[in-house]
């Protein structure tokens, strides 16, 4: 066999890399662990093409009469960003702009050199898997406190940006600056969340309407009009389904902000029930987030205009994203600001206790090690003290809460007036020329890409009909003027609830299994045989098993659909963000079997496993209109795997740790095995019969197979970088048998055949 393998090794084909994948002077696959660690960066060099114009713009922003940095000074400039490592450097074409609301983001260094916080968007490649980030003057984020807080938040699974102190050089001016990623797809995926709608409080009216000379309008008085806006408008405008998800989630958030706007002054409270859509787990998450920010003296992040949100379709509600907490004195025993507990009707003692357990579970040496390589050092003893002080403050907050509760001072927010009427009144007074858009209904079958809407003047309530197309959804949700809009001022979008498909919730095995399903799906559970049977009746049927424990159980999925002439969906996912006919989310497996026969369904994946763990003894999928089995963000092993007759990939793995003991993959339309997005994959024995590509390892993934036998394949194996935010990939194969001698890789990847 070894003689034949030598022939295979002679036929490597070099891929041509895409032009957005970056330009490094080393093979990125050799340094994957170091490249994903911000602390490995020796220096970030930013060279702005027209530095004279940049300097003039910055000076004008600094000397302007406004106390804030207004939008007119936040123009984008082309730049080259060079990331320096001990083992080489990477060049990135980029665009940069001034960052910040206030002028503390602009500073004169010794010698008269200008330095400032900047936003950076890389047009090719990434830094630590990050494409969009800020370089901040440390004083604007309380120096190392920001780093400590974001790391703690991430450890307890609350969404927070990766942050580190790095040496920076901007057109020859050296400084130490905070590197912090922006709220984006890459941030979500780094915390094992799928891409979805991202929102933030809209600050435009807060700062652009503050006159420092007359002081006639306090900027805080306009906070009730700030509402919210989407930040990833391209995602919302990409397709009908993302547009529907974005509008529905935006409607939830706008109602939350409008409720806040009735009683805004010195009030940090948003409606958790509305944000979470009554999901108790999400309410607990919101509670822990806010308690932790009060305990770390970081409540500045709770001002509505500072808040950022992620709509998690799988959880069915909003999650908080940390931003700009201004963390003061984390390592102290005092609490700078106490919450107004009377305004938190959904807060419970168990929320404090849950957060305490999470903080106690953090090992001081682990937290200290995450700082290793940073420009400041935090010892194990220091991190121990920090964690102890946070726990002390959580306990004090809990005692204060119990005092309020015992004195019966808790109550619901007062429903004094209609939130719609209050909003209209405030807009008429502050911005009489503005307008509101109302979405009336879902797109019809005759016009599937059009949302019928009205745009109304707030001053005289005159309305015009408007046909809102999908490409305009993003602009609308970002609160920008629409292309055909005659009104001068930005839109104030009123919530529109667009109906989702009806679903049903069922529970099995004494509550250990929770299933959400389309109305047409049929589920039944036999307690004796421990078989969960699922029948899909229509092409649009689906089942989601979530927050469950499958122990010693067999799951059987069947489809009664006969027609083979099924149009594929225009979107990868449905209105609930699901790609699978049968999906598992946040589920543990032990001694589990899954058998699926789902030919002729419209799903992107027959089976999709997300954020789950454990071991599946036997998993078999027969028939798929796209992918057979897709696993994301999971830590999973499979003893025996069989996937047959998939029109696309038989097995698709992303961003997780996966092991397969034996697998047979047959009649795969594209790849038999696709390993991507920073996955670790190992297999003992794999047999592939008929596929375009045997195995592809891509985008920072590391794959190894002890024995791989293939026939009827066009390409044995590939290793390459596909997405901008990742790097090259590794693939190691022992005992390879393949009907062709084709191994493809790009310049940043490695294939080893033994």
Account of the protein in words:
- Helix content is 21%, strand content 35%.
- Among the domains are: 153 residues, no CATH class; 75 residues, no CATH class; 237 residues, Pectate Lyase C-like (3 Solenoid).
- It has 754 residues and is α/β, with parallel strands linked by helices.
- The longest helix has 27 residues.
- The protein has a 22-stranded mixed sheet that branches. It has a 7-stranded mixed barrel with strand order 3-4-5-8-9-11-10.
- The chain is globular.
- Strand 6 and strand 7 form a beta hairpin.
- The amount of beta strand, in percent, is 35-45%
Radius of gyration: 27 Å
- Rounded average pLDDT: 85
CATH architecture of the domain at 503-564 and 579-753: 3 Solenoid
Low-confidence stretches: 1-10, 210-217, 409-417
Major β-sheet annotation: 22 strands, mixed
Strand runs, count: 40
Helical run tally: 15
In terms of structural class, how would the helical and strand content be classed?
alpha/beta
The shape, in one word, is: globular
Q: Would you state the CATH class of the domain at 503-564 and 579-753? A: Mainly Beta
Q: Would you summarize the structure shown here?
A:
By secondary structure, the chain is an alpha/beta fold. The chain is globular, with a radius of gyration of 27 Å.
What brief labels describe this structure?
single chain, 754 residues, alpha/beta, Pectate Lyase C-like, 22-stranded mixed β-sheet, 7-stranded mixed β-barrel, 15 helices, 40 strands, globular
């Amino acid at each position: 066999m070894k003689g034949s393998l030598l022939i295979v090794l002679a036929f490597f084909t070099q891929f041509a890399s895409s032009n957005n994948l970056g330009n490094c002077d080393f093979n990125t696959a050799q340094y994957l662990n170091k490249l994903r660690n911000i602390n490995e960066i020796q220096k970030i060099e930013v060279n702005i093409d027209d530095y004279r114009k940049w300097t003039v713009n910055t000076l004008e922003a600094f000397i302007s009469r406004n106390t804030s940095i207004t939008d007119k000074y936040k123009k984008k400039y082309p730049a080259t960003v060079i990331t320096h490592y001990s083992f080489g450097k990477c060049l990135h074409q980029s665009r940069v702009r001034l960052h910040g609301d206030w002028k503390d983001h602009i500073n004169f260094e010794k010698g008269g050199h200008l330095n400032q916080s900047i936003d950076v968007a890389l047009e090719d490649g990434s830094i630590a898997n990050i494409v969009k980030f800020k370089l901040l003057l440390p004083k604007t984020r309380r120096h190392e406190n920001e780093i400590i807080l974001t790391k703690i938040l991430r450890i307890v699974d609350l969404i927070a940006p990766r942050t580190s102190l790095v040496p920076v050089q901007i057109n020859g001016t050296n400084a130490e600056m905070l590197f912090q990623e922006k709220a984006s797809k890459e941030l979500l995926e780094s915390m094992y969340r799928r891409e979805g709608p991202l929102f933030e409080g809209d600050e435009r009216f807060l700062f652009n309407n503050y006159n420092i000379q007359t002081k006639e309008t306090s900027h805080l008085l306009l906070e009730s009009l700030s509402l919210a806006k989407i930040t990833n408008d391209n995602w919302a405008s990409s397709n009908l389904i993302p547009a529907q998800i974005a509008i529905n989630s935006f409607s939830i958030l706008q109602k939350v902000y409008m409720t806040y706007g009735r009683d805004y002054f010195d009030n940090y409270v948003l409606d958790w029930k509305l944000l979470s859509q009554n999901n108790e787990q999400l309410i607990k998450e919101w509670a822990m987030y806010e308690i932790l920010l009060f305990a770390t003296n970081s409540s500045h992040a709770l001002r509505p205009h500072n808040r950022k949100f992620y709509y998690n379709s799988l959880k069915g509600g909003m999650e908080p994203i940390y931003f700009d907490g201004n963390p003061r004195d984390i390592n102290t025993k005092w609490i700078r600001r106490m919450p107004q507990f009377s305004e938190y009707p959904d807060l419970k003692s168990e929320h404090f206790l849950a957060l305490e357990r999470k903080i106690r579970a953090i090992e001081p040496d682990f937290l200290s090690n995450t700082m290793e390589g940073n420009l400041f050092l935090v010892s194990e003893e220091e991190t121990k003290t920090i964690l102890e002080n946070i726990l002390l403050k959580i306990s004090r907050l809990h005692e204060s809460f119990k005092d309020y509760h015992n004195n019966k001072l808790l109550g619901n927010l007062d429903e004094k007036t209609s939130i719609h009427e209050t909003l209209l009144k405030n807009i008429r007074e502050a911005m009489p020329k503005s307008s509101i858009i109302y979405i009336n209904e879902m797109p019809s079958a005759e016009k599937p890409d059009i949302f019928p809407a009205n745009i109304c003047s707030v001053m005289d309530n005159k309305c015009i009909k408007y046909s809102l197309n999908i490409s305009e959804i993003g602009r609308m949700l970002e609160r920008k003027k629409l292309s055909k809009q005659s009104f001068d001022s930005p839109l104030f979008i009123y919530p529109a609830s667009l109906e989702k498909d009806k679903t049903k919730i069922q529970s099995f095995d004494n509550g250990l299994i929770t299933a959400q399903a389309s109305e047409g799906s049929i589920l039944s559970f036999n307690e004796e045989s421990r078989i969960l049977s699922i029948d899909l009746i229509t092409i649009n049927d689906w089942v989601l098993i979530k927050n469950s424990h499958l122990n010693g159980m067999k799951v059987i999925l069947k489809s009664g659909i006969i027609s083979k002439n099924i149009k594929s969906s225009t979107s990868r996912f449905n209105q609930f963000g699901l790609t699978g006919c049968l999906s598992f989310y946040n589920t543990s497996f032990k001694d589990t079997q899954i058998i699926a026969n789902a030919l002729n369904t419209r799903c992107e994946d027959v089976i999709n496993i997300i954020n789950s763990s454990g071991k599946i003894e036997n998993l078999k999928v027969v028939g798929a209109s796209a992918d057979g089995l897709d696993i994301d963000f999971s830590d999973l092993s499979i003893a025996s795997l069989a996937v047959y007759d998939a029109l696309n990939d038989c097995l698709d793995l992303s961003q997780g740790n996966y092991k397969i003991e034996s697998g047979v993959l047959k009649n795969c339309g594209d790849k038999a095995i696709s390993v991507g997005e920073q996955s670790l994959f190992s297999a003992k024995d794999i047999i592939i019969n008929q596929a375009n590509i045997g195995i592809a390892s891509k985008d920072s993934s590391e794959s190894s197979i002890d024995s791989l036998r293939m026939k009827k394949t066009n390409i044995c194996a590939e290793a390459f970088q596909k997405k901008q935010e990742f790097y090259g990939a590794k693939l190691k194969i022992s005992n390879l048998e393949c009907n062709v001698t084709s191994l493809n890789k790009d310049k940043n990847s490695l294939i080893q055949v033994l």
